[in-house]
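Lecture 7, part B: from sequences to assemblies.

Below are the input chains for today's worked example.
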Amino acid sequence: MENQIIEGKEPKERILNAAASLFASKGYAAVGVREIADLAQVNVSMISYYFNGKFGILKEIILRYFQEVRQIYEQTWAKNLPPEDALRTIVSELVNLIKNKTIFCKVAITEMPFNLPEFSDFKAEVVRLHIDYIKQGLKLIELFVDDPKYGSIITPAMISLIFSHFLFGPLIKKVWSVETDDEYYDLYAKTISTLMLEGIMGIKKLIEQNNQGEQK
Amino acid sequence: MENQIIEGKEPKERILNAAASLFASKGYAAVGVREIADLAQVNVSMISYYFNGKFGILKEIILRYFQEVRQIYEQTWAKNLPPEDALRTIVSELVNLIKNKTIFCKVAITEMPFNLPEFSDFKAEVVRLHIDYIKQGLKLIELFVDDPKYGSIITPAMISLIFSHFLFGPLIKKVWSVETDDEYYDLYAKTISTLMLEGIMGIKKLIEQNNQGEQK
Amino acid sequence: MENQIIEGKEPKERILNAAASLFASKGYAAVGVREIADLAQVNVSMISYYFNGKFGILKEIILRYFQEVRQIYEQTWAKNLPPEDALRTIVSELVNLIKNKTIFCKVAITEMPFNLPEFSDFKAEVVRLHIDYIKQGLKLIELFVDDPKYGSIITPAMISLIFSHFLFGPLIKKVWSVETDDEYYDLYAKTISTLMLEGIMGIKKLIEQNNQGEQK
Amino acid sequence: MENQIIEGKEPKERILNAAASLFASKGYAAVGVREIADLAQVNVSMISYYFNGKFGILKEIILRYFQEVRQIYEQTWAKNLPPEDALRTIVSELVNLIKNKTIFCKVAITEMPFNLPEFSDFKAEVVRLHIDYIKQGLKLIELFVDDPKYGSIITPAMISLIFSHFLFGPLIKKVWSVETDDEYYDLYAKTISTLMLEGIMGIKKLIEQNNQGEQK
DNA sequence: AATGAATGAGCATTCATTCAT
DNA sequence: TATGAATGAATGCTCATTCAT
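Predicted structure of the full complex, as structure tokens:
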């Protein structure tokens, strides 16, 4: 699962895999199309042919990632689980996704130049949807995240929590020397879920105390 | 506080501010030295003159950021506060730092190409120290983060939590339309602290249950 | 024969010719790639594309020159001529080579930064081979150039003699106003050969006198 | 005698020595003013101050070298020696000069961009004088070098012979591992003189034969 | 006499992309 | 589909020189 590079017989897939791998480790801007083409064992021009340029690859990666995320959210809501179980399921499924397609997810998450106007048309929408889903999830557990004050704090916090492991990259293995096998990712999902749920409960109490204080 | 760009009379400071601002919004690799020089209203050559090249700017940014972080940690430990207060103080101080020097912190945090061998000599050390401090803090609250399994999950999670707001950038203002004033950042610090503490307590229970389960 | 610049339909050859011409008149370090590209009527990038950078051109020039020289030496030894004839043949062939590919030879000979460590790997070997061949030739005429004292004086002297005309460049035409036609180069080869042979005979007598002096 | 760099208390001399040393080993165009200033332990601006720019240093080096050469020629002619002795004296004195001021001579000899129009005003004159002196010397030994055919061949040949050892630089020591002490340079001067004289005598015979052939 | 910050043109190289084949 | 030569702009950096101090 680690080296997804040359996998894929189709040139288009090979390009996608090679690019994702390189973007993940060096960053989108630091990777050249020639490098991608070499790794994918494909002629440089094919990148323009298939993806309409370098940015087209990034768009495809983000798009694919988001389609998978959307599926996870929608399938879980469809099950009508109790709030806590729903959240645990989502976290578990997201972790599973990241585990299997690490580099694609890392690229999709980290290579979204939120700020830049030239890109925002495409990506702002993507991110917004992502956030909307999380907001729905937090609503389920009866937290009034529609209060923008708390919502704007807790929602990014939750997303960051889920992806925290992957944002630090290989460094984690270096510092703690852990084996990141399936069992590890199970523990990761469970721990993060607990962290989120217990943390949110704490916040809930905090908000209620504040509200009572204001009512007096 | 947002646009710190042209601030600083000294050319060296202007370069640093301009570069930080651009790195923060476009990423290190996507920013050119000419762009930095233009924004800093300085001749291109001055970048090499003062910083020994583009990478020298990034090094300086990361270095300065880390010195501030180190100070926060050390000053707080020196106070010998009870664990919970210590953690709340650190979160509050870190949030304060990020609030005042948003772009510098964002660059320092996000532009550490952990993976790349050519950079690792310098940055791996920086990151490691950062993590060591957090580990010390978590130890204080009696959590056995020396167990690499949990440590490797919780430590990155805590760091991600603290910086979550800043990692999402201007997008947050767009989605929730909140005013990020001092009061907001106070609430942010308090909320994140609670999230962390309550979450960690939840994990603690989880671990204890697991240990009991194993003992039986 | 003088202006070989735009000759060559292939871009690669045009670059090589343009570069040789410019290197010959201004020196390698003083010539810019843009200048070469302009003269070759080629895009700047093509230099890196074909030669892997500016230094690649110089390497190619030296390499080609040396292959021609090697051929001359080997073909002449193969003929098993009497020593004097062998030397005259070599001089004549070398002069012929320089006459036809003046600028290439000049660059190859003068642009070998013997001293610089960064280049030595490639060029020291080239020069050493050149010298080895000359040493063989001098051995043939029964001069004990293996005595490093004399060898280190006579070998460079011989090489300098052969190339003397070309090292001075266009200045010669200015000072003496001679027509450098084929007949001239024939005379040149014959004169230099005689200079070398008679000179060497003189040295031989000198050495013998010295040796007798020492024996007494 | 080898490392003349930091010698000279006066900044101007230190610059000259440092520059000569660097020019000699890397070539004029490949040496930067900053490098010179560093080696001379002098501020960069001093180069413009004393020499009116980088080229001013080269001009000074060539000028000083040529003054020494002129002196050698004039002093020798003044002695009214027999032709052969005159030539041997000149070679010996020139070798002595090169031995003592190797780097200055090497720079002066090799860094004369004969061909370039922008420099020619200054250097063509220098070189022409040099050649004139040699021509006078050869006339003394009754060789009709005024015949431009032979003059244009023999004069450069003689100059090349004298400087041959120095043109090859450190490579000579590498290939033959000789100790270049005073004794060695004495032998060098004697050998080169013999090479020249015997060679020239051979040419003289050649010319006479040719002339007789034509007369018939 | 000496400094060092500042300039602007120039350097070699690499970029993503295009296009004829 | 696939190639690889070709383009021209942009890359980070260094250059010799100037100038106020």
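Note for the exam: Chain A touches chain B through 59 residues (CB under 8 Å). Keep this in mind when comparing with the next example.
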